[in-house]
Amino acid sequence: MVKSSQYLETIRHIARCGDCDALVAISKLEKGQHAECPRCHHDLQSQDRWSLRRCATIAISILILMPFSLTFPLLSVDLIGVKVDASIWGGIWKMATEGYPITAFMVFLTAIFAPISFCLAVIILRWCQIIKRQPRNLLIAIDYLKPWVMFDIYLVALGVSAFKVRDYATLKFDVYLIAFVATAILMTLLFAKINPRELWNDFYPQHLLLTPENAEKLDKNPPRFCHSCDYTFERPLYDRKKREVCPRCSSLLDKPATISLQQTWAPLLAGIIMLFPANFYPISYTFMNNVPTGDTLISGVITFVSMGSYFVAFVVFAASVFVPISKAVIMLYLLASIHFNWRHSIKWQMRLFHIIHFVGRWSMLDLFVLALMMSLVTRGQIINFSVGPAAFYFGASVFLTMIATTNFDSRLLWKIYDRQTK
Q: Which residues cross the membrane (predicted)?
């Protein structure tokens, strides 16, 4: 690090990168700017965020629209003169009451519970800001909740369901679809304009950021970093068991590499095991005149291709087949790179990790389509629809691999790179 006085005057604070553990000097940012790590390009700080007051207003708007988006019909079909409506809650309830409660619970968590909890958390944060309280646990919880909010994926699932059912019955979109689309747009806006980790600086101003005045000490006493609240500091505190904890959020520091790897390997291997029955068992059954036809993940894609819906087939194939399998393969490769000290391109390794971390949640698309189809055509008519045994295994695989990528510590890859460049 350059230590000339002229350079240090331009630095606002010093921070460690949570992805590669590099020590980075960050200057004062103007509105709309963001600072990224020069080594791994991870976003360290951003001024492109809205105030908590505005975010809370959006969260309130979402909660007002939620009842219309979740319980009212979004689309309907005409089955032999009988109108059948499809709603998010109706599909989940039908799935739960017809023998698939665990699968229904997975859909409920990501489509209803997580979005509502996230919005409530933002509103409570704003209330804490008004009454000048410091919601340590809430700030930690909201960061964990964010990846599990999948309202945008449900919007795509709605389109896939419409394509899937249009050959069986007359399809009609209801007016409440406007509320659902508006909710999805507002949720996306809220995600883009709120940064839970930067809110720590607003609620805990007494925990000062590391300043250039401490630069002379950095070589002798490297600063520490907390992954839970993205806080860079000089010295940790100790809990009752004499373990090092973050002075700002009280989270445990420096988890041993063996523990971190175990927490990644365990859900990953369990998720890979779940992938086998998820791909070989039928994920859904369609009954025509009481004659069942089972569809696996890949046969569902083939059905869309035969219908001429090539784009929908591509979306379903990517979300249901390609993403889960490639995610497992890439995670195995990254973990093997750590265990066997493979000195491959760190740039590509990090790029692969960021890609699977971003797209992994989209695999829930199939379960959302199943929930909507249960609501639409499970009425004992000429056409009937039921969830297959593969649905549970597929949902469990998605959940487990998401947990694995969350627990993965990319700094272990950078340690190999640092040893290579020395």
A: 55-82, 102-125, 145-163, 175-192, 265-288, 308-335, 355-376, 382-405
* Sign of the CA dihedral running 399, 401, 404, 406: negative
Q: Which of 238, 211, 234 is nearest to 224 (CA)?
A: 234
This prediction has a pTM of 0.87
Distance (Å, rounded) from C-alpha 373 to C-alpha 103? Answer: 14
* Direct distance between the N- and C-terminal alpha carbons of the chain, in angstroms, rounded to an integer: 17
Q: pLDDT below 70 — which residues of the chain?
A: 1-11, 79-82, 167-169, 212-220, 287-292, 377-384, 421-422
pLDDT digit string (tens) for 2-50? Answer: 343 444 445 677 888 888 888 888 887 777 778 888 888 888 887 777 8
pLDDT at 219: 57
Q: What is the largest CA-CA distance in the chain?
A: 82
Question: Distance between CA 304 and CA 420 in Å, rounded?
Answer: 49
> Within 10 A of 149 (CB to CB), how many other CB atoms are there?
22
pLDDT digits (tens, 9 = 90+) for 156-215: 888 888 877 776 667 788 888 899 999 999 998 998 888 887 888 889 887 777 776 665
Query: CB-hemisphere CA count at 13 Å for 255?
Result: 17
Tokens of 218: 């950095």
Structure tokens, 345: 């391109």
Phi first, then psi, for residue 94 (nearest 5°) are -65, -40
Compute the radius of gyration of the chain from its Cα atoms.
Answer: 24
CB atoms within 10 A of CB 3: 12
3-state helix, strand, coil in the chain (%, to 5): 60, 15, 30
Q: Say how far apart CA 354 and CA 37 lie, in whole Å.
A: 15
